[in-house]
Amino acid sequence: MSTPNPITSEEQIDLSIASTPQDIAKVPGLLNDIASLGSSHDLSIDRGARLALLEKARSLVTALETPRETMLKHTGAETASFVSIALGIDIGLFKEMAKNGGSAKPAPELAKALGINVEVLRRILRHLTAMKHINQTGADEYAPTNFALSLTHPFIADGYLIYRDVAIPPMLHFHAWLAKNSYSAPSNATESPFSFGHKTSSSMFEYMAARPAFQTQFNNLMQGYRLGRPPWFSSEVYPVRRDCRAHQGGHEARVQPPAGQRACDSCCGGKLGGDVSGYVYDGGVWGGGEDQGGVAGSAGR
């Protein structure tokens, strides 16, 4: 089937493109790339090959999807998925599913354990199944995937909660803030999309510093972000030890981690180590000592 030309005039787009695969011509090449990557690498240990294959797989989905399908995925499937996951974390769904070795459990049993109406829970379970976040093993029976099991850990689970309660409100009102400010960039942290979305005069870190639960969730999100990734000070990411060695001049180096990371999470208690003498800033102190408070030390760990 030939792909229609979407441009019929300067002002009118042929609506048939909305129900036509986005780039069907790319599919054969992507399939070949996927087959080659999948058969020539040990994807369990080769992170680069796995990420390359994942990118090809996503490109294949994009090429095969119609714009209509993409719209419905964005507006319905993925938003409902996010809400369902966050609610599942709130009520302890994934921890309950993980019990007894993650064995399959009937919906009524889960509902009773969680204290939730079984019909409400069934709707959540069915959507999570449709999105492949959990497995349906029987007519009314469900078991966790590895993803669902990971949601029992705060390093993964808290990312959903901090986005729902802190990050998303400014996003939802971002268009209104831009219109109100003539589509200009924010000039300071207290008159920004964040402050507008939360109806506050505080900056993001001030807002979280006043709310300990959000501090914890943000810290856990940052921990989850770096799981399975080379640390920022790794030579393959940034040659921090090389640069410190070059500029040390007989003095101890002082390094400020990006995004307020805590040194105890990244550099062995705050010391640079190896043949470099120095410390990494640890949210209030140098060298992984006791936190002395402050916004950077609490909200940006």
UniProtKB/TrEMBL annotation:
InterPro entries to which the protein is assigned, alphabetical: SAM-dependent_MTases_sf, WH-like_DNA-bd_sf, WH_DNA-bd_sf
Originating species = Echria macrotheca
Cite the source lineage.
Eukaryota, Fungi, Dikarya, Ascomycota, Pezizomycotina
Classify the source by domain of life. Eukaryota
Which PANTHER family does its entry note?
Answer: O-METHYLTRANSFERASE, PUTATIVE (AFU_ORTHOLOGUE AFUA_4G14580)-RELATED
Name of this protein: O-methyltransferase
